[in-house]
Amino acid sequence: MAEQLVAQGCKAFALKKYDDAADILAQAVEAVIKTNGEDSADNADTLLLYGKALFEVARQKSQVLGGGSPSDHEDEAAQDSLSKVALPDSTQDPRFHFEGDVESNEDENDEDPEQEDNGEEDFTLCWETLDYARVLYEKKTDHQQLKGDNEGLKATKWKLADVFDLLGEVSLESENFEQAITDLQKSLEFKKELHSGHSNILSEAYFKLALAYEHSPNEADRPEAIANIEHAINTVKTFIKLEEEKHGLDAKGKDKEVQAITEGKEMVTMMEQKLAELQQPPDSKVTQTLRDLLAQSGGASLREGVEALIGSANDLSGLVRKKTETAKEVVENATLSKRKEIEEQEIPASPTKRVRLETVPEKDG
């Protein structure tokens, strides 16, 4: 049953029916927890898929509510372009892919009346689901290391790279930049370990980390933002050079290669513009950012917008969406305290202390 639900959920995701995908995958989570128990590492794959669907739902709702400045939308456009650059990889990574990324004819204006009420719940739930998957994957890597299962370990590390990448994006959305830096750095470390060569996998990871450093309130993080943008640019430039040497500058009759080179050059141009922006004196950049925010919100602060979106982030009583009440009863047992118990008793402590999704990070004591 769980396998059928996962297949249906992935199909809905590929069609960009993210609400449907999240509802179906919530049922799949319920099914695997019922079968395996809530602390089984075998549940991690389904939790990751569910978390991906929830992230898309939450991001769509935040856009509908008018979140983000013009510069934020430019950054998103750059990320989208970077992820679409068709850079061939020497090996196939075993991460999840939603087959048949079909164009959807969905009506942008046909919104669920409950959408605004539930928006903040999806970001909170997305964080909790992905962090739970992280715990289980880390538990799995320990068992694989003990068994000497190198192939299985590599596959699990790819999935952990995905988990940390998505956790970083959730933190970016919530303006928890310190946590975003931590998670995106961890994702990049996994990707550098697992992937050799110059591809969109690494360039996109560098770019996202640069965004986290750029928006950090700590001005000392600015050099890191610049350094990571430069890494992203150099990665794509090296790819372009290798492809041109391999196929020739004209690459006649090789439409796919020509498109990859063209898109790569466009991406370099976009990132060089971002680099020039970061190299501006801090005061001029802050002034422009304030202008963008005022133009977007009519004077409302960015913090107010985020608080409106994630106002109930501390209320973790529900770990699934309202439409799946049966799944909610099952998954609610996987609370933060339960996951902490699993983490402390069954696997070594994570090298990174986790922070709950909040507008402002918690302080100990």
TrEMBL record:
The keyword Acetylation does not apply. One of its GO terms (biological process) is DNA replication-dependent chromatin assembly. PROSITE patterns: TPR (PS50005). It comes from the Eukaryota. GO terms for molecular function: histone binding. Residues 355-365 have a biased composition (Basic and acidic residues). Residues 101-123 have a biased composition (Acidic residues). It is found in: Nucleus. TPR repeats lie at residues 161-194. Residues 64-123, 342-365 are annotated as: Disordered. Keywords: Nucleus, Repeat, TPR repeat. This is NASP-related protein sim3. It comes from Neolecta irregularis (strain DAH-3).
